[in-house]
Amino acid sequence: MRSVRIGVWVAVLIVAGILGWLSFGGGKAPNVAATGPYGVPFTLVSQSGRPISEQAFRGKPSAVFFGYTHCPDVCPTTLFELNGWLEKVDPDGSKLNAYFITVDPERDTPEIMNQYVSNVSKRITGISGDPAKVMDMVKGFRVYAKKVPADEKQPNGDYTMDHTASVFLLDASGGFAGTIAYQEDPDVAVKKLEKLIKKG
Questions:
Q1: Residue 154's pLDDT is what?
Q2: Which of 22 and 153 is assigned the larger pLDDT?
Q3: pLDDT digits (tens, 9 = 90+) for 155-191
Q4: What are phi and psi of 187, to 5 degrees?
Q5: Cα dihedral angle (19, 22, 24, 29), rounded to 10 degrees?
Q6: Which Cys pairs does UniProt list as disulfide-bonded (predicted)?
Q7: Is 75 annotated as a binding residue?
Q8: Which member of 13, 64, 130, 137 lies 3.0 to 4.6 Å from 168 by CB, making a disulfide possible if both were Cys?
């Protein structure tokens, strides 16, 4: 009887742990009700050095990805794939916008973002700005982002960023319209973007 009771408690703790992991991102985008504009108002800086706000996510559908320029694999892979999908579904860039927003504004200045993004795509706009304002925007869009020291003994030394790896899809009114997961099947990703364009 005691062993059964212990087993039940272990199962409860495992489920609680999984739910906690999912609630803090789990590498994927959170579930969001598709009513009204997604996220929060913001005023940041585009890679060209010009002010940019949530109004950039209006008028046309948008694909929005949060990452950072020191990212070893997820971010460059996602940006490269996203650029290819954009060229396939919207060759002239008239129907869909795309943005790369840093979760590491301390290192990713607009100038750095411009250098980084321009090497991958002419279709994707990098966004950075004042670190506090950037992180307010990141939290407001329910994106998970956490600094991870490369060496726990040197918390103020080099670091990486653990962050949500999905591409957020927003409709022309800024409403949440779904996500493209990291390493999504390319055909599925293209179909999601085509559906987003059709929805407008």
A1: 78
A2: 153
A3: 777 999 999 999 999 999 999 999 999 999 999 999 9
A4: -65, -40
A5: -150
A6: 71-75
A7: yes
A8: 64
| Interatomic CA distance for residues 124 and 147, integer angstroms | 25
User: For the chain, what's the residue count?
Assistant: 200
Residue 13 pLDDT greater than 60, yes or no: no
Alpha carbon distance 155, 170 (integer Å): 36
Provide the domain limits for residue 188: 43-198
CATH classification of the domain holding 86: 3.40.30.10
49 — alpha (psi -120 to 50), left (phi > 0) or beta? left
Asked if residue 102 belongs to a known ligand binding site, the reply is no
Domain membership flag for residue 121: yes
* 21 or 164, greater pLDDT: 164
Distance CA 72, CA 84 (A): 20
Number of domains composing the chain: 1
**Cα gap 136→139, rounded to integer Å:** 5
* 70 annotated to a ligand binding site: no
Q: What is the pLDDT of residues 62-100, one digit of tens each?
A: 999 999 999 999 999 999 999 999 999 999 999 999 999
